[in-house]
Amino acid sequence: MRDIHQGLELRSTIDKDGTLVLNLEDVTIDAPAADEVVVRVEATPINPSDLGLLLGPADLSTLQSSGTAERPVLTAQLHEGTLDLVKARLGQSMPVGNEGAGTVIAAGADISDMVGKTVGMLGGAMYTQVRKLKARDCILLPDDASAADGASMFVNPLTSLGFTEQMKMDGFEALVHTAAASNLGQMLNRICIADGIPLVNIVRSDEQAALLKNIGANYIVDSTKDDFKEKLTDAIAETGAFLGFDAVGGGKLAGQILNAMEAAAGRDATEYSRYGSNHAKKVYVYGALDVGPTILDRKFGLTWDISGWLLTNFLGKAGMATALKMRARVKDELNTTFASHYTQTISLAEALKPDVVRAYQNKSTGEKYLIDPTR
To answer: Which end of the chain has fewer CB atoms at under 10 Å, N or C?
Structure first.
């Protein structure tokens, strides 16, 4: 009889009547194949990219809790008119969690030396107590690194590195970044400082600005200030940052960045053009902190581009050599450049408490939750 491993896994289901159901289900995992490992998951973060699958378009004011302390069940109704947005997943009990870390408790014949090692993992379904996956989707952590150290070594680190690699691929030399005081934004600052890449940081408060100043950021502009337009234009003109990455998505910010880029490019104009400057200007939207429509007040001529950006798509285009180089850097700088800090560590059951759900759904700057499924 083959060895089996059992545990609990957090699942998200949206029923046909528009009800979101979050619960814990039993999972049974059989022995790994020759190139697979079974990992006891000990740390997995709640990233903004996880929340779309976990909560969908749910109205959190309708949260209702039931079940038991060990097996809680949480329900909520979807916002009116959003059922069609998720029709492809209706009725499916879906596992959640993009990345995590833990201890290898079983391994296939080809990689038996991995048993007992701590690894970081990427591959989905990480909000679980046990996870089986290909060894290629794991990275052995340094001996002095904990599971918590390695839990967030993929999504934010590879995204922030991906921005600088995308910049090089697109032929730019500096960046603009929004929601810049986030965990990801702090990583991007450390990368750009180390690599000599000018970075313009857009924040929303004096506290966020102070946080970035403390880690050495040079260019910080506050989008809530009356002089935001002028300060942003000055920073872009000084740095040559004509490529932006926008975590907000909705609202006017992406358009404001393009307008500031146009204004900065126009400072060197020697003659008038009714088509605007011919300086390349581009903004990638990679997040949806604002789920409303993206509004473009088009005062930036005709030489511009706005596009979506997704890490998996980028890695596919960048190629294996670039992806391996990025992974190696993350491992080497895990506790420095790519260190993550967590507001609170919670269990799988605690992740289904209404007050906790509302807290991590807020996606507040500086607040990041870590799930420890062994708790």
So the answer is: N
Query: How far is the C-alpha of 244 from the C-alpha of 300, rounded, in Å?
Result: 14
Distance CA 69, CA 353 (A): 10
Q: What is the CATH number of the domain that holds 286?
A: 3.40.50.720
Taking each helix axis as running N to C, give the angle between helix 155-170 and helix 320-332, from 0 to 180 degrees, rounded to the nearest 10.
130
Q: Into how many domains does the chain fold?
A: 2
Domain housing 79: 4-153+343-371
- Which residue, chain included where needed, has tokens 């289900």? 25
pLDDT in tens, 219-266: 999 999 999 999 999 999 999 999 999 999 999 999 999 999 999 998
State both tokens at 197: 């890449």
User: Are 57 and 12 a contacting pair, CB within 8 Å?
Assistant: no
Mean pLDDT of 150-157: 94
CATH code at 61? 3.90.180.10
Give the angle subtended at the CA of 306 by the CAs of 301 and 310, to the nearest 5°.
170
Q: What's CA 270's distance to the chain center, in Å?
A: 42
For 336, the enclosing helix (H) or strand (E) is: none
The one-letter code for the residue type at 267 is R
Q: CB atoms < 10 A from the CB of 251, how many?
A: 17
- On whether the CB atoms of residues 221 and 232 are closer than 8 A, the answer is yes
Q: Are residues 87 and 216 in the same domain?
A: no
Residue 323, by phi and psi: left (phi above 0), alpha (psi -120 to 50) or beta? alpha
Question: pTM for the whole thing?
Answer: 0.88
